[in-house]
User: Fold these one by one.
Assistant:
Number 1:
Amino acid sequence: MNVFASVNIILGIVFLPIYLWESGGVQVSHIFLALGCASYILWKGLRAKSPEKVLAVLALFIFVRESMGVLGGVMDVRAFLPALYMLFNLIVFVTIRMWASSIPNQQLLSYGLFAGAAVAASGVLILGYGLTVDQEGGRAVGTFNNPNQLGYFAVCLYSCAVLLYYGRILSARALLALVFVAGFLAIVSLSKAATVGLATSLVCLLFVSGRSRKGLLYGVLGASLVLGTVLYLYAVGYLDGLAVTKRILEIGSDADDSLAGRGYHVLYQARGWEIFFGLGESGVKEFVGHEVHSTVGSVLASYGLVGAGLFVTFLGLWAKRLYDVLGFTGLFVVGSSPMLYGLTHNGIRFTMFWLFVGLSFVIGRGKRSGVP
């Protein structure tokens, strides 16, 4: 085993919640992951499969599309950043898929997740948060740059934990601990997308959590009890004072809750060849003022039907992999949270998402020893 690679990959996971510099730039976790990925790839080499090939073509297409704007004098060299983001996360995805294909490394990854969860939770507890609507300070940020990053980290942490539980790497108690932390982070971030996505998946997980008929019965009873308790507490008014309750009840009332507020209306501006090749990232920002707040929608707007087709093809391969190993229920439990979040936020550059997707392709089929 390449100890240097493993140590740096784990440190990269541990430091994922630490944002020392502005968003969009290199963070501490990226440095560790880059060292770990480079070391592992130099040691093992690359074995690209269909998902990696699709992402590689997408990264190349993004580079070519943005190059058109640069050559035309519309954009500066920062236009190449989206291609660099995609290339870096492609490398992370490839490395995690290969490195985590052994059970011992999946166990190491679980330790890194626990440490990363502790770092994220400690940042929130130390820097402060408010649960009730009359608390000052608004949404918690922790060691991230904004609350949406905290909420997306919670979603990816939850999905990784469920994956490891399905792969029999995590015990039920360990899963419960990580789910509790993820739920806490989502709630204090006051991210509507993160809270709704995690809650939706969690209810389904409770119903199917048992690995036997007896366990399934306990899961159904537990889910019914939790749902009943929450509904009762809401009915009698005990949840009215919580900020997260207020946020959920206000869904649809904020200006950015509409499709226009999220930037979807830029899709109607594409004409001719832009329908196939997109407006480019700067073209989208010039019209909307910001990127489209959607994972798939942002790719469609910036890189047209060609770019979106490649990305959706990759997501289809990912969904098929989960379905083949975990079935439809497992696919929903694991994949619903990040995809629901992606309807209203652009998470394509979030490194932990690619770590989670890389793990998705190997969970349940890991080797007990060695790395293939």
Number 2:
Amino acid sequence: MAGQRSKNTSTSIQPNKFNNDGELESYLSPEYILDDFNYTFNRRMGDYILNFETLTGMERITSYISNKESFSLATLLESGVGDGTWHASTYIVLSDIDDYIQLAKNNPSTVCKILWEPLLKDLINKELNTVKIEEELNKKGINKDNLGCE
């Protein structure tokens, strides 16, 4: 993948337990900043898509997933003036069908996006060991109609 890395960019992948909403420093703890983060960033149909390569970061993500631990990915672009621009996202591990059911109750629009995502249609979901996430949810009474998907 052709990636980019700005000398003015810092990215971290860290356990979510350290994060305080709105506080940049809590999302970019020095011990979690990655030296090997290469990325491409695109926008598709109103969604932002981040593709990245990072050996260290993937090792962390794999560990968080194995431990069913939520984590964040945060990036700071230092502008040279003031604090710069930053963004952080929290990732919650969906390790079994019950996690999807809980997500459907708490945030149905996220499940709708998962079900409509073309990139996920033919991929095997590692945690559910199936390609048919929608079918598994249908068995549990969760479908696009009762989620309110458009």
Number 3:
Amino acid sequence: MKFVSDSTPTCGVTSSGPIFQGQNVTLTCSMTYYYRSTRGARPHATISTSIGWQSIAGTFLSNSSTLQADDGVKLQVDAWTLASGTEIPSYNCTSTFDFSDNRANKTNRLALNSVSWTCVSEPVLISCK
């Protein structure tokens, strides 16, 4: 079985132009991965994926998660926040992959360790109106 990450997650503010106080701002986080069995064999593990935004302080933002099929699988989550103060602070976005053994014969055990990556968005300055 092969699990290949195309890249670490990319994340940041995706709203275009200058950001003004009181404006709704979109942050996007995405990651592509490939999950294939070796030599055409049936995979012996299932994979459960998640991706989500979390603020540095540990409170979750409102978000909408999408799972898109491409050459691999693209995980993407958008979050919205209201621009206030002087900057949009850094936020964490974490992609997590959990594996479970789906074989009927459990004689030979599979390594089922979870894998996760965290992306930290850059702070963005907010302009006054």
Number 4:
Amino acid sequence: MQTVIAALVGIAGGLVGAIPFIVVRPRMKARMKKEGLGGIVTGLLATMISFLIMTVEIVLCFFIISDYLLPFAISAIAVFMLAMIVFTVTLMRK
């Protein structure tokens, strides 16, 4: 049961890691209409912030409940990657 809870918290952590992309999406979309590479700096900044958030989450999990680090980290990273794929596809749609 504890593993399931760690995985569910990891899913929430992965979604929290994707928040910077949701915040900068309108700005990236507007800049991409003006020029193709306009949103790259904003996207890179959002990526760095997201990786920082994910790193902090995984380190906190290591210090709080290190026995369940693997299910937490796997679920957090998987959900984060899925969210980034969905974000990229919706951003590039016309």
